[in-house]
Give the backbone structure.
Amino acid sequence: MYETHYHRASSIQDAVKLRQAAGEGKYLSGGMTLIPTMKQRLAAPTDLVDVRQVPEMKGIGVSGRTVRIGAATTHFEVASSAELAAVCPAISGLASHIGDPHVRHMGTIGGSIANNDPAADYPSAMLALDATIITDRREIAAGDFFTGLFETALEDGELVTAITFEAPAKAGYQKFANPASRYAMTGVFVVRRDNGDVRVAVTGAGSNGVFRHKGMEAALSANWSPDALVNVTVDASDLLSDIHADASYRANLVKVMAKRAMAAA
Amino acid sequence: MAKITMTVNGRQVSGQCDDRTLLVHFIRENLGLTGTHVGCDTSQCGACVVHMDGRSMKSCSTLAAQAAGSDITTIEGLAANGELHPVQAAFKANHGLQCGFCTPGMVMTAVDMIRRHSGHLDEATVRAELEGNICRCTGYHNIVKSILAAAAEMGGARVAAE
């Protein structure tokens, strides 16, 4: 790892100030991606601003059907919150299958979405749940937040502080996990609202990161059932190909995972 | 350089290290507690697992500075009064190791796992919970057996105490 300077933030305001004063700085949350990346010398921030212990960024609040999750809340905390499981068990289940137990004890929801790894689980949930990403300076709709591979709408120095969403009537998530890394080779999050609106978000498969599948949304709006997906075609031309799976294999996985997510919803 | 203070195995410790020093190196080199191992450079193997504030974590993927002020338990902190912890005793009784390199991480993981599941574990859960720990000798069979034996013993002890 290259040399770096560590700072611990005590509040959101403090974090932003420390980050502004830093040169090529980065926010550090659980560090489950950033520290391994720095160990490999693939990232070399001059300064790290640790936001893991910022009190306003921690914890889960459920008020009626409105859910608010602080950005520094760990995957373990999301997975084990009874309050959250009562209104949206799909996101609890998603969090319980990220990485391994040790990663879940450290990694955070804010870190995951700010990193926007194309194979991460949370971006699909944020997009399908039509979540709002709250930062130190504004609110961003999930649909505008995830802009490409490891790219988001965040400005330089902007800090994700929380996410919020309305719990849906139905939701399900299933992924085909890479056998070594447990990242999603393809993961699909399905959501149905009381008013009948349906959203289907796919992670791990798109060559431009997480995306909504409009064909599946139309089919499931007409008939909320796994069978409704049988005749939907998934275009492989915009999907990732790598050593683990080519685009046509991933296209098939999108459909299979969508059916399984529907069965779980 | 950072001056780091934390509690390790119940004792308050301090040391100087670079801001970039990983917790595992602080534990091994500054504190001389070499039971915590470094098995890979990619955050995958789990040989470095310790407990921070009561939760298992990979000390190779966290800076010592991040852990400042926290309460750390390493493999050296498990045995009390010269008696093996029930998980250590179960690994010994069930031959849950061969070369032993991964064992400190396996034992720390098992202690955390048994605590989270209140001693109620089955084989499938143990195998799923071992996702973050790699053993290249045993094929995991006796590790799983050891953890199930320890969970039964610790769950039984808890019932007896109630």
Observations:
- Chain A has three domains: 5-50, 58-166, 170-264.
